[in-house]
Design a protein that fits this description.
Blueprint (H helix, E strand, L loop, with lengths): L1 H17 L6 E10 L4 E2 L4 E4 L5 E3 L5 E8 L1 E8 L6 E7 L3 E7 L9 E2 L7 E2 L7 E5 H4 L7 H5 L5 E4 L2 E4 L13 E5 L2 E2 L18 E8 L3 H4 L6 E7 L7 E11 L15 E13 L2 E12 L8 E13 L4 E15 L22 E18 L2 E16 L10 E18 L2 E16 L3 E16 L5 E14 L5 E15 L2 E12 L3 H5 L2 E3 L2 E3 L8 E14 L5 E22 L4 E24 L2 E14 L4 E2 L6 E11 L2 E10 L22 E15 L2 E10 L7 E3 L2 E2 L4 E9 L1
Parallel strand pairs: 1-8, 14-17, 32-35
Antiparallel strand pairs: 1-2, 1-5, 3-4, 3-6, 6-7, 9-10, 11-16, 12-13, 14-15, 16-17, 18-19, 18-44, 19-20, 20-21, 21-22, 22-23, 23-24, 24-25, 25-26, 26-27, 27-28, 28-29, 29-30, 30-33, 31-32, 33-34, 34-35, 35-36, 36-37, 36-38, 38-39, 39-40, 40-41, 41-44, 42-43
Length: 731
């Protein structure tokens, strides 16, 4: 492995050296303005069509694309709330372009970056997708990405488990069918295969992109249900300093038997960040602290996170971005309640001195090189280390520890073979090395190769076809070979009406924990299953998007989907008497349903978005409802904005979980306490703009405004009302 790393580094250094001898390159610079008021547009997207190259405008509305080879290009300027503008240029020298965008009456999402590993309009892809910009999720004034993901149609989040369209049920935090990434680099632990989305401070995230449906044809394992990509912000041209703080208090429960303390619990945090471009160099650095005393006894936590991003623009045709991430968390050992009558207390047998300490650290690099106007290279590499242990001495039989190191490398080549034929190909390698008290020493390696073609020979029709090969090998389990094909179609019938369709195969390799975990913990006993095989799926989707810009502007999006799973891995209680759990392959399962989304601009100051996801999850082996899934998810948001005032009202409805594992009731008292979920969140924000060159925002926030009581998984009471105030300050 060390030799492999040295080879790759030498390869990159070689290219950086020969840059001085590369073909003649030029810059494309300029500004983007609002045409009606002639003011600069911050955060507008500048994209070179049919390439992986793009950039966002800074706080002055300016942009700079460096080291572009001479040739013929189409430059696209877009921003949410404005009409997209295209300009064709012949690049033979340094070029300055200014864009003047027409405002739209109704705001629609315009750009998605990662669905096909290139800059591409969200209307042109064949899968359902959602893009959230920083300015939209900053309104909620939280440091927790989990709260943001809960506002996405068709997405459920609980205890760092993410389920898209019912892909995941109750899995004890082990394994995920949703792939989480940072700029295309996976953020998955090597042992549990779970998501680590709270390790990056909000101030460093520019946007969140969610692609629904099987994404294994490009992304491989764990993308069987969808992909979430966190897009990091680029260092600004002007120095930027930000400070955010939050303080909230949980409402005491109504029932006296639930009150475990005479005083209410608190939740508070701070984060600070700095960014600046220094010539060829760029720097982003931030840190945060979050303390949650919790609404439940013995469920408090501390979290510290730090993030650093360094960029370097080479003189010729190349750019390097290096990341450094560190996170430390200290959590109490909450698992499930004592009973419904004492829902905020753990079982009486729980050791209240037990705590878990976990740390995550990652070093990663993202390198781009331009061979010519039609050929682009991208290389990603990362080392992601996770450490987990409890506070028992090693001599204690309940001592637990796990060290997992994930090494990831990907080399991708994008080639415009013609104006109507774009080919993206790459190879990737993942190496998971595990040393754990309950797994032993384990090794998992995945070798991958993929290729995808985008064809646009027919007017208004885009055809995407691709496949991926994955070979899994390791210690103490059989090798596996997977082929994941995909084909998608996007057809523009009219300017405001598009149809899309896709068929794709997905797969997920069993995690180390699913295969090898062997432990007795909190009344449960987990046993290993060395016979687990990768789960596979076929995902089918047909969708349509219609946008009306006339009187009462609106956007409506509809998707009908059918996901067929084979060898689905689910935790099963195999021994009722001892509450023994084993991860097993279901022969077959199916999740089919429909996604509906409506966005409506009632007035210039008032907008409404509502969505409905209906799923029918079936265990076809047992001919019954698939466990731990809800059939209906609905999210509605009413947004009022006038001058410096903003009010946001969210309503989240989730129908009652259809079925649980009845054997769980033997260990967890009142395990079947299930109700529909009705959550209302309310946010008031006032923005003080340009006070001495500074921006200040103060918010009053109500989470679970109605103090509705519910369970989000067996034996776990949902959060009570949280009333908080936040302050955001920028220089």
């Amino acid at each position: 492995m060390n030799k492999y790393k040295i080879y790759i580094i030498s390869f990159l250094l070689f290219f950086s050296i020969i840059n001085t001898n590369a073909a003649e390159n030029f810059t494309i610079s300029g500004s983007v303005f609002d045409k009606t008021v002639n003011e600069p547009i911050v955060g507008a997207t500048i994209q070179i069509e049919k390439t992986s190259y793009g950039i966002y405008t800074n706080k002055l509305g300016k942009f700079l694309l460096k080291s572009i080879p001479k040739g013929n290009y189409t430059i696209i300027a877009s921003s949410i709330g404005y009409e997209t503008q295209k300009l064709q240029i012949v690049l033979t020298s340094d070029t300055i372009i200014n864009f003047y965008l027409e405002p739209k009456v109704f705001k629609t999402n315009e750009i998605i970056i990662t669905a096909n590993k290139q800059f591409q309009s969200i209307q042109e892809i064949s899968n359902s997708a959602v893009v959230l910009e920083q300015k939209s999720f900053n309104t909620t004034n939280q440091f927790d990405i989990e709260q943001i993901l809960k506002t996405i149609p068709g997405v459920e989040v609980y205890e760092e488990n993410v389920s898209i369209r019912g892909s995941d049920g109750f899995d004890f935090g082990i394994g995920s069918r949703t792939l989480m990434m940072l700029d295309g680099i996976p953020l998955m632990s090597g042992d549990n295969g779970d998501l680590k989305f709270n390790i990056i401070p909000f101030s460093d995230i520019d946007r969140i992109e969610v692609v629904k449906g099987a994404g294994s044809a490009l992304y491989g394992t764990s993308a069987i249900g969808g992909v979430i990509n966190l897009i990091s912000a680029d260092p600004p041209q002007q120095p930027t300093l930000s400070f955010d703080s939050f303080f909230g208090i949980y409402t005491q429960p109504t029932y006296s038997s639930w009150k475990y303390s005479s005083s209410p619990s608190k939740k508070y945090g701070v984060q600070a960040g700095y960014g600046k471009q220094f010539g060829h160099y760029g720097l982003m650095i931030s840190c945060n602290f979050l303390r949650d005393e919790s609404y439940r006894m013995f469920d408090d936590s501390y979290q510290y996170s730090g993030f650093t991003e360094l960029t370097y623009d080479f003189t010729k045709a190349s750019k390097l971005k290096v990341y450094g991430i560190f996170s430390l968390a200290d959590n109490a050992d909450w698992v499930y309640w004592n009973s419904l009558d004492s829902a905020t207390r753990p079982p009486a047998t729980t050791n209240l001195n037990s705590r878990f300490i976990s740390s995550k650290s990652m070093i990663a690099a993202n390198y781009n090189y331009i061979f010519s106007e039609n050929m682009f290279l991208n290389f990603k590499t990362s080392a992601f280390y996770t450490h987990f242990k409890n506070n028992y001495p090693q001599s204690n039989p309940d001592y637990r520890q796990s060290d997992a190191l994930t090494l990831f490398d990907e080399l991708q080549l994008t080639n415009n073979l013609s104006k109507s034929f774009l080919l993206t190909s790459g190879i990737a390698f993942t190496n998971n090395t595990i040393d754990a008290s309950i797994y032993g020493r384990q090794l998992q390696q995945i070798y991958s190769a993929y290729s995808q073609a985008e064809l646009s020979y027919i007017k208004n029709l885009i055809i995407t076809a691709g496949f991926r090969f994955d070979y899994e090998t390791g210690r103490n389990f059989n090798d596996n070979f997977e082929i994941s094909p995909k084909i998608g179609i996007n057809y523009k019938i009219f300017d405001n009406l598009r149809l899309r369709s896709s068929i794709g195969k997905g797969f997920r390799a069993p995690t180390i924990a699913e295969r090898f975990a062997s432990i007795a913990y909190q009344g449960f006993r987990v046993v290993e299953n060395l016979d687990l095989t990768p789960e596979e799926s076929w995902s089918y989707e047909i969708g349509a998007n219609y946008t009306n810009q006339e009187f009462l502007p609106f956007e409506i999006d509809i998707s009908v989907f059918d996901n067929e799973f084979f060898n689905l891995i689910e935790p099963s209680f195999t021994d009722q008497a001892f509450s023994t759990i084993e991860f097993q392959n279901l022969t077959r399962a199916r999740i089919q349903g429909i996604d509906l989304m409506l966005r409506l601009q009632l007035f210039s100051f008032l907008g409404l978005q509502t969505s409905l996801t209906y799923i029918d999850p079936r265990d076809l082996t047992l001919n019954e409802v698939l466990k731990f899934r809800s059939k209906i998810l609905s999210i509605s948001t009413l947004n009022f904005k006038y001058k410096n005032y903003e009010i946001k009202l969210n309503y989240n409805y989730t129908s009652k979980v259809e079925k649980i594992d009845e054997k769980a009731a033997f260990q967890v008292k009142d395990a079947d306490a299930r109700v529909p979920i009705h959550i209302v969140d309310l946010f008031f924000t006032y923005n003080f703009q340009n006070i001495g060159g500074r921006n200040l925002a103060i918010s009053l926030n109500f989470y679970n405004l109605l103090n509705y009581y519910y369970t989000y998984m067996i034996g776990n009471l949902g959060a009570t009302r949280l009333v908080g105030m936040s302050l955001s300050y920028g220089l």
